[in-house]
Amino acid sequence: MYQALYRKWRPLCFADVIGQQHITDTLRAQLSTGRLSHAYLFTGTRGTGKTTCAKILARAVNCEHPVNGDPCNECPSCRGILDGSVLDVVEIDAASNNGVDNVREIRDEVRYAPSSVRKKVFIIDEVHMLSAGAFNALLKTLEEPPEHVMFILATTEIHKVPATILSRCQRFDFRRITPDAIAKRLMEIAAQEQIALTENGAKLIARLSDGAMRDALSMLDRTAGCEVVDDEAVSKSLGILGSTDTLALMEAVKTADLAAAIAEIGRAYEAGRDLSGVIDQMLGLIRDMLLIKTAHGDVSAMISPAYTAEQLKRLGEGLAPATLIAYSRILQDAAAHIKSASNRRVEAELCMIRLCTMGAQAYDSLSGRVEALEEKIKNGIPVVQKVVSAAASDNDGPPPPGDEDAPPWLQEEGQPAANDASASAEPQRADWPGWPQVLEQASGSINMGALTCLQISSRAELDNGQVLVFCEDDVTAGLAGAHPTIDRLSEIASAVAGHAVRLKVFGPDQQPQRHKQAVSDEILEKAKEFDIQVTEF
Ligand SMILES: [Zn+2]
């Protein structure tokens, strides 16, 4: 029968436990001198060796021939505990036995002396899961335990354990195991198991395991089928992005190439990769880029083995640390939401849209525009261009034949300009309320990337039998205007409008001029608020 690596290689004595020497040394000293506590509390994150050490301790206190505080694992007591035939060592999972009755059973058993070994040992795993009543019942036992009993409580969430329990236990804090220690152990085990694990592969698993040896060994298990387990093989079998793909995705974000970023997410999705892992990897990459950018001295030992310092330097060129921090905020936000998102792909795509449009948005915010204005004033560049505007009444006329693809305001460019006052007084035409409905119904029948972009950055007007779709960026306009997306959208829009409509898509450069006028007015107004002297040309 196949045995999982983490079971097969679970340490049998304290000497084999890695990364927790501060604990194993103390326990061995206590065992050698016989100064043992009657209750221990092991706390720390998952996979750090709490249960393993509890089991070793249970054998060590009962071993007939202990060696330097370690159990011999050969005497009848050790063997009996290992194969489960000694009933005096009891393991209880508090996650499923958390009631008062479960603890009362323990209290009843505590009264009787052990039948085959020296000490009865109760290992209570996930002890924080006990109910309040169960904790109270346990407390009574911990207050006056018989000489022949030892309790070992283990928890990942120490803050949920009542102070009254804590004060009656000797507490040991298990640390996350360092990536180096995990990688070293993985190499040793791989050699014994005849797995061709490379150093880079071991380092990547170690980093991904986040200090948990058990997780690291489970990952090694999943990659063991590969001929050579290097970092690419690890990425592939664990369903995470390879380092090249992560770099490509970051490059797309850096250059605000939304289409490339969305395509990269699409590829990861179709390859069956975990998109929340992709977000995590982006975060890791940005952390490494920040480290390379801001740290003095050699940090190559602190960055992920998946990248070289050269790659990170090149990728970080032209990106300010503040920008990278802003990127990481967006990614952290996505990481928090993506696990519970009903559609992870959409969530990941939205995240890419936010990343790619971040630079533009920062500039687009009013303060950004005022800053730009100040910059222009300093350099003596005219801030307001003469705007050619059309009278409001002319806008509603049908477009001239032969030029149907141009939006109405562009078709009227040749006409004499009306005075500025009437143009700026013209209200923006109302959004067509049917548009959100169209997008909702389009879900599943048009490209997901196009739909996401449209949901984020488009609005529409219904005008004279045409639906005019205004997109805030060229990518959205390009996606929406492509066949068959535009045909599908036209059909749905016709159904929603109740009559046949034609759909027209406009990018940001095709904004109506009345719109530009409104923006410059807004800037002028804001400039006055900030006491900036503006000269109109
Ligand atoms: Zn023994």
Task: Supply the key terms.
537 residues, Rossmann fold, Helicase, Ruva Protein, domain 3, Zinc Finger, Delta Prime, domain 3, 4 domains, three-stranded mixed beta sheet, 8 strands
Describe the structure.
This protein is of the alpha/beta class. It has 4 domains: 5-173, Rossmann fold, CATH 3.40.50.300; 179-237, Helicase, Ruva Protein, domain 3; 243-363, Up-down Bundle (Zinc Finger, Delta Prime, domain 3), CATH 1.20.272.10; 431-537, 2-Layer Sandwich (GMP Synthetase, Chain A, domain 3), CATH 3.30.300. 53% of the residues lie in helices and 8% in strands. It is built from 26 helices and 8 strands. A 5-stranded parallel β-sheet has the order 2-3-4-1-5, covered by helices on one side. The protein has a 3-stranded mixed β-sheet with strand order 6-7-8. Helix 9 crosses helix 11, helix 12 (243-254) packs across helix 14 and helix 16 runs antiparallel to helix 17. The longest helix is centred in the middle third of the chain and has 21 residues, at 344-364. It is elongated. The termini are far apart. 35% of the residues are buried. Bound molecules: zinc ion. Zinc ion is lined by residues 63-65, 71-75, 77-78. Zinc ion binds next to helix 4.
